[in-house]
Amino acid sequence: MANIRTGTETGAREARTPARLNTLDWVAMVLLVIGGLNWGLVGLFGIDVVARLLGDMTTASRAVYLLVGIAAVYSIYLCASKLPAKP
Fold first, then answer.
1. Considering the domain boundaries, does residue 51 fall inside one?
2. Which of 82, 69, 85, 86 lies closest to 25 in space, CA to CA?
């Protein structure tokens, strides 16, 4: 409904401030981009950059895969908690 006195609208169209991302959110996003690009290269060209840099299924490469997986799970939480709810 419109507020006639102030000339503003209230209700479903009320302006929302965008949620800010903290450091953990940004780290998760970077890891998702790295993982997505790596899997894109695996799918298109059969090139696993993580395995080439860190070795095939070494502790280091497994740690990177684990961190990307944790970042994906955290991003599900991030989307559910920081995105505005539909009116």
1. yes
2. 82
Q: Is residue 56 part of a domain?
A: yes
| Residues 30-74: tens digit of each pLDDT | 999 999 999 999 999 999 999 999 999 999 999 999 999 999 999
pTM confidence score:
0.70
| Number of domains the chain is built from | 1
Domain assignment present for 10 = no
